[in-house]
Amino acid sequence: MAETRTEALHQNAEGLDVQTPDAILSFLANAQIEAAKAVHGAIPAIAAAAELIARQLRAGGRLAYAAAGSSGLMAVADALELPGTFGIARDRIAILIAGGDEAFRTLAGGPEDDTEEASAAVVAANIGKGDCLIAISASGSTPYAVQALNDARSRGAATIAVANNRGAPLFKLADVAILLETPPELIAGSTRMGAGTAQKIALNMLSTLAAIHLGHVHDGYMVNLAADNIKLRDRAVRMVAAISGKSREDAARLLEESGGVVKTAILLAAGAANADTAEKILEGTGQKLRPALSALGHDPEKWNPLFGKDHARTRK
Q1: How far apart, in Å, are the Cα atoms of 232 and each of 26, 88, 152, 264, 302?
Q2: What is the pLDDT of residues 223-269, one digit of tens each?
Q3: Mind listing the pLDDT tens digit for each residue in 81-107?
Q4: Residues annotated as catalytic (active site), given as ranges
Q5: Please, are residues 185 and 10 in contact by the beta-carbon 8 Å criterion?
Q6: Element (H, E) at 11
Q7: What string of DSSP letters covers 165-205?
Q8: What does the alpha-carbon distance between residue 20 and residue 212 come to, in Å, rounded to a whole number?
Q9: Cα–Cα distance between 211 and 222 in angstroms, integer?
């Protein structure tokens, strides 16, 4: 098998084991930085993939991740945070990882070759028409990831491939191919390092942009978060106060009236008659706060007194 970029030897690898600890750590840090830079070249593909995900989720579909090994851990890290950060319902997210639950205790290598397990996982998750599956593999040829993507595609799902090698088999099967052309690893083949770093960055970018398309972000605030702990409830109060120009006390009261829903609380501050009215306005704007504010007669672009730039900037 021809050597792939992710298996090649890094230019600084020779004699690595006899270098000083500081030198080794410097090489490792620089290798991570170089890997992260590879994401810039994938921005157009990431943008296309985010639009595809948003379209499927908006229409009622689900988002699935399929991967093995270190790529699987990157997928899990992204997927598990989406409900809390962006309020995407947990039953709208599926995680297919080689080895199943056991992978969280023993990240064995064997399951990544198990194509039957991949097929069974796609069926068990009922991935099909209307859904979107992201397959992640550093090599781009991991049998589990390739099989999962191929099966999801044959069942009518939209597909996205993320890999670190040009010409990866995954790319031939996907609707959108995201190439993260990272340099060879300082420890050859240890893709939990540079390739994994680039994957994590790309997945974070991908899901965040999809959430923005879905109206879950407003002026850099995660206005669709699930405030299910003390920290997040405080964050929700601060968001309502900052966007509406209200005091923290008023913001807390509005959140209570809205049942803890940030966007609804903001619309109450903007003049919506009640929570039901606010929610109907949001339904009409595709859950996007900016046009919902405009529907109530406010123009956020002009920074009027209620939603004023100066007011929000100076408020403590």
Answers
A1: 36, 16, 35, 16, 29
A2: 998 788 889 899 999 999 999 889 999 999 999 999 889 999 999 99
A3: 999 899 999 999 999 999 988 877 776
A4: 81, 112
A5: yes
A6: none
A7: STT-HHHHH-SEEEE--PPPPSSTT-TTTHHHHHHHHHHHH
A8: 45
A9: 9
